[in-house]
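Pilot study result, target chain (149 residues):
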Amino acid sequence: MERIVLQLIMAGLGSAGFGLIFRVRRDHLSLIAVGGVLCWLSYLGSRQVFHGMFVPSLAASVAAALYAEILARICKAPSTPFFALSEIPLIPGSSLYYCMLNAARGQAKEALSYGLQTFAVALGIAAGMSIVWAMCDFSRKAARHAEGI
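Predicted structure:
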């Protein structure tokens, strides 16, 4: 349990740290930190149910995208910065590094294994984001259409 709490703290600090680097408004930094925690908590929770990298990354991306869309409405700001910075804990840096390292060493089997992990995480992030943003776009268009009737 202690390890999970530490991971969640680091996820929040990592997201807020990147928010500082990208000069996000100071009043949004705590919201971004919460987004990082929510994203990583979703990932850890779904790892308990689903094995592999794709579905947990998809679930975490959906949670982060929904959170970003809600914050965008509340803060009257674009959802992209909230989403991108909340996703920081999911970025597959280590698997990409090991993929490249093994490819440079000529160890094709290991490079392929890490490459597939990296691809699964990236695909999960992209799919989760796309699903939520498509649903939000559809709901906005449906609401506008309903108002016009």
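One observation from the pilot: The chain is about 85% helix and 0% strand. A full batch analysis is planned for the follow-on phase.
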